[in-house]
């Protein structure tokens, strides 16, 4: 790694000029803006940055997916000229329903399993339906911190948003707070991820049961983002059809959308495909106000013909076959995808230790009394510093992360993503953190 440690800290005036020229405020910086800034700094100073800001897979995809796409194209060269079904190819729908049974122990028909062009596409349509099913309930409630782009979608759709910070509310306190907000009758949808991006907090079965009861009681639609499906390695969820099964809201209510991304669990981010599972009862549920936006009152029809059709008109077919092959192999026990991506958990454990060694603290450090799991992300802070201030200093030492202020958190700190950090970079990371720690002392010598 070309570290050129002698150039650290990088010139603060140049960094300030870049921020000023691009009108970037580190308190509100987007991931893409930060990517561009880091690229500029890396090129200008000819130094490789440690990229903790990228929430992207760091592993190549298993050959099952790409080989299936190639096989399908060779077998049927006309596929690129044929429009895909709006609601997905039958093979994928069957594979998804079986996968849900094997890993969640939830029964859904293939009809309830609908592919989208990535999880962001799914979230967009789910929010559009949840926020428009009734005129008075046009607000999406977030269990924060969360993925910043979800809230951009909320704004794009002209919906309102409200937030609960999981730092302050867990267990019964979380359920009580959700009910307090639901009781206003202004909430159309509740959106969360578990494991959580950026904290890796995982909701417990008791919390999901309480949330499910409230979704049913107040007729709110739950939007469960399972981008990191089963990646809480404190339990072994890797064996299909064998307990323990992955916790899910689908066990406790019929008012749910469940989104499973292929990006992280299968390292298939570039092919932009995810699966949305809609409760069979919710598929048939009707709301008069939906007709104004989707030309139908029925949820399932609104999702496919009012959501997918006018946005992407379907998902490309070869990625659908690839995802089907991956789901089939996982369900049959031929492909242990959770074992394959466990490397992120192992890497996070090592990186956390190094940060803590140099006086950085974990912000979200507990999961209802037990240590937070090791996974794709964790959160760090420095006493007496805002997230933006800490990010500025990290940049000067060749490191980047996402300020928690952009995620809906009420706490100061930085999201650290471990996915593209290599074991070979850990010594260099320790050198830079040691130097940064020295720089942040009251009277560095």
TrEMBL record:
Question: Which Pfam families does this chain map to?
Answer: Aminotran_1_2
Q: Which organism is it from?
A: marine metagenome
Q: Which family does it belong to?
A: Belongs to the class-I pyridoxal-phosphate-dependent aminotransferase family.
Annotated InterPro entries: Aminotransferase_I/II_large, AspAT/PAT-like, PyrdxlP-dep_Trfase, PyrdxlP-dep_Trfase_major
Its required cofactor(s), as named, are: pyridoxal 5'-phosphate
What is one GO biological process annotated to this record? Answer: amino acid metabolic process
Q: Using the record's annotation, list all stretches that form the Aminotransferase class I/classII large domain.
A: 81-288
**What is the official name of this protein in its record?**
Aminotransferase class I/classII large domain-containing protein
Keywords of the record: Aminotransferase, Pyridoxal phosphate, Transferase
Coiled-coil regions listed: none
Which terms does the record give in the GO molecular function aspect? Answer: pyridoxal phosphate binding; transaminase activity
